[in-house]
Amino acid sequence: MLPKQVFVMPEALNYPNCHEILARLEEKQLSIELLKSNRMPKSISKDPQQMFLGAKRTLVLAVRKKSAFQSCRPSSDYQLPLVSGCPGLCHYCYLNTNFGPNPYVRVYVNIAEIFEWAEEYIIQRQPLTTMFEGSATSDPVPVEGWTQSLAKTIEYFANHPYGRFRFVTKFDTVDSLLKINHKNHTQVRFTLNTERVIKYWDTGTPGLDRRLAAAEKIALAGYPYGFLIGPIITYDNWQRDYRELIQIIAAKVPPTTVKQLSFELITHRFTPRAKKQILQVYPETDLDLDETQRVWKYGQFGYGKWVYPPATYATIQEVLVPEIHRYLPQATIMYLV
Ligand code: SF4
Fold first, then answer.
1. 145 and 199 in a common domain
2. pLDDT higher than 80, residue 115
């Protein structure tokens, strides 16, 4: 991410990590403003689309306040709050529900404190291992060049007997993670989709080839790794395209690494709030947001969403699961939701 504007919250300056991040940003001569309070300045534009796009290119250095870690089923036990927001412009992005009109990219500089809080959860659950998800409210890879938060987190969990870490990305700037002695305690996943989905609805992110090339590097660096196929969208001829996607993946993954590989399958869903936001920011989108073709379901955070009806789920399962078993029989399928 090359931010157009950087804001620094006053408390963030109390942390040496903030100064290290600032030094990297200053080297690139980016526009940096030290705020006098924790309130973000008002956007110059009143146009919802311009506000949204401007916020996506705004980096905020902030301090994460201590609060209960959210659960993160079925991916992990808890969310690990390293970053919130993402510069990507995927039309269907799940963050559209949470972040509203100004989805700034916030990075938390008090990472040592965040590890201390994670430790409290790990101790409570010992001797079980506790898994933390690093991308529940963000894609942390595009800001890794500035923050080095993922590298620090991978190193932290590498030395933890009962803590594990995983994150997922659509971005391919993973070279700085390849030499870390991760001790198999971090799983790196890449979100993939058909060419059709990536071309029309995954804007502002690297294409399929680049994501697969990054996954190959991660696999060869010995990380447990995975592919999150999602959102699975049932457009015309979707069955053919998703079968082809599995074959493309199978042709690309290094055969010796398939035992380290897992799949997560996530179908498309949307909330009323996300729909409103999507239509405001991407008025031309042809993303299917027709409630009459969906069923209403309440999720783990208490709010409802429109999901595919059970018959469509069943068809998605029939298409994707046998194809993965056929082409990558040693890979694990973690879940389909
Ligand atoms: S890459 Fe992920 S987090 Fe970023 S906009 Fe796309 S869906 Fe949202």
1. no
2. yes
Q: What is the mean pLDDT of residues 174-182?
A: 98
The CATH number assigned to the domain holding 27 equals 3.40.50.12110
Is the domain of 147 the same as that of 176? no
How far apart CA 128 and CA 161 sit, in angstroms, is 10
The answer to whether 72 touches 78, Cβ cutoff 8 Å, is yes
Residue nearest atom 5 in ligand 1 by C-alpha distance: 88
Q: 10 pLDDT exceeds 80?
A: yes
CA distance 135 to 3: 20
Does residue 251 share a domain with residue 183? yes
**What are the C-alpha distances in Å from 199 to residues 180, 185, 191?**
33, 33, 14
Contact 145, 83 (CB under 8 A): no
**Alpha-carbon dihedral 57, 62, 66, 68, rounded to 10 degrees:** 0
111 pLDDT tier (thresholds 50, 70, 90): very high
In this structure, are 76 and 174 located in the same domain?
no
The whole-angstrom separation of Cα 40 and Cα 34 is: 11
Find out whether 119 and 100 touch, Cβ atoms under 8 Å: no
Closest-CA residue, ligand 1 atom 8, reads 93
Is residue 260 over pLDDT 80?
yes
- For residue 323 the two structure tokens come to 């194809």
Q: 326 is in which domain, residue-wise? A: 170-268+308-337
Residue 154 CA to ligand 1 center (angstroms) comes to: 21
User: Which two tokens mark 158?
Assistant: 């590498």
Question: Which residue among 170, 200, 281 has the greatest number of ligand 1 atoms within 8 angstroms of its CB, and so is best to mutate?
Answer: 170
Distance CA 268, CA 181 (A): 36
Nearest CA to ligand 1 atom 2: 139
Question: How many Å lie between the centroid of ligand 1 and the Cα of residue 191?
Answer: 9
Residues with a CB atom less than 6 Å from ligand 1: 86, 88, 90, 93, 95, 139, 170, 205
Residue 313 near residue 234, CB atoms below 8 Å: no
pLDDT for the residue numbered 15:
98
Output the CA 77–ligand 1 centroid distance in Å.
21
